[in-house]
Amino acid sequence: MANPILHFHGAAGSVTGSCFLLETAGGRILVDCGMFQGSKSEKELNYKPLPFNPEKVDAVLLTHAHIDHSGLLPKLAKAGYGGPIFATAATIDLCTIMLQDSGHIQESEVRQLNRRNRRRARETVEPIYTADDARSMLPQFIAVEYGEWRETVGGVRFRYWNAGHLMGSASIEVETPGADGATRILFSGDVGASNKLFENLPRAPSGVDYLICESTYGDREREEYALKDRRDRLREVVASSNSPGGVLLIPSFAVERSQEVLTDLVALMDEGQVPRCPIMIDSPLASRATEAFKKHAADLDHGKAFLRALNAPNVRFTETAEQSKALDLVRGFHIIIAASGMCEAGRIRHRLKNWLWRPECTVLFVGFQAAGTLGRILQEGATDIRIQGEEIHVCARMATLDAYSGHADASELDAWVAEREPIRNAVFLVHGEESAREAMSARLSKQVSAKVVCPSLDDAYDLLPAGARLIEDTTPARIKPVVPGKADWNNDYQRFVLDLSGRLKSVADERGRAVVLRRLRRALDPEDVSAVEGRRDFDANHGS
């Protein structure tokens, strides 16, 4: 194989599941191995076999610790990968915590699912991996420094650059040797936003042949928030939420986002901008991640303010399930920060179940909500939702403060790409929903001379000296129809169930409800309904 081949096995049309396989003449290198999140159809990919042979992968380069980039590494190792996983020291510290937590969550969710499956006479399932699986692969991590050239299989060199997205996050520059000279490829990872509390501005090299760039916020601009402006906006949300017996619920990613929001809240209280009230961090993962942040606090911007916030007398971390459940008994206005950030798992779902039906509750979103997630559904104004099979009428107020996002917005992404010029051959847009990629592609096509490509899931491209060429593949798509980054039939079904319940409640009498159900049966099976109605008419005419 004369030229490298790049496979897009995740984050192609969606914002999760980052996974790129680079084949070179000397070996196979995986950049990230992330978990899919979002709709149930997309999450089912986590349970399917990996679309490549793990035993034939020679090295893994990890951009950062977020689960949508690292979350399937234990599955990769469990399936036979025994090679090195290169990452920064801070990323390794976070992965040590996050991957074991991910294994615990999967074990817990599968236990609950299997209880339901047994009651429904359905087959039981196995967790994708366990906490023990995660622990067993941790020795495969190898720490790298920013700016340090390293060499791996087949003479491939790579170098990490600070991406400014998360503690330890990186963009990765890769050089693959070839007869016509080296091919330079840059994987952006997740590019950090300006005015991040703990991170520096992102850095990366220029003059690459191929750029693989994230596009999470490729179609939207955030308001420009300096630190003071962001805290002023947070102060407004807290003030408008502060009601007797009320709560401000903040679904937050446990790693860095929770620590940022906590630091700002305590700073506002110390300055007298908002009344001091209890702040509960309802996430064991956030508690453990906080220890990693304390370890690296000297390397963080505003690290001292973060340490002060941790020691504030009104801040509490819940560890046990009993401590978490006790939060339902708290009286007076309080603030709860709980994972997960997209409301898909974790303790935030219990908090939402307990509070969404109450008008004295405010839910503040501080991060991106992927299509099909409960967070996106609430953010878009759903009036009725289902959590763990229970129907809840939403009376809580929704608020969004995207100043905390770890991702660069549209103009920041454009500027970051411009700084990578000249880009000689192609820009691949990944890690973005279709609307984001299309908008960013339209802008970049006018900005850069390189071709702009939006790959689909499992596409493979031959990275030729003259440009990228799509390799035709007849392998059936892993998702049918191809629906990454979109709500799926499961979301439609939940919406239908809620709409049907509302329709039946709105009908005045039992006869009217019977008419609604008969019409539904007719739509589902016209022949069966005709037979039922025929029997009913016969019974009525013959006095049965």
TrEMBL record:
Listed InterPro entries: Beta_Casp, MBL, Metallo-B-lactamas, RibonucZ/Hydroxyglut_hydro, RMMBL
Keywords, comma-separated and alphabetical: Hydrolase
Protein's UniProt name: MBL fold metallo-hydrolase
Source species of the chain: Rhizobium brockwellii
Residue ranges of every copy of the Beta-Casp domain listed in the record: 258-378
One GO MF term attached to the UniProt entry: hydrolase activity
Phylogenetic lineage: Bacteria, Pseudomonadati, Pseudomonadota, Alphaproteobacteria, Hyphomicrobiales
Enzyme Commission number(s): 3.-.-.-
Enzyme class: hydrolase
Domain Metallo-beta-lactamase: from-to ranges: 16-241
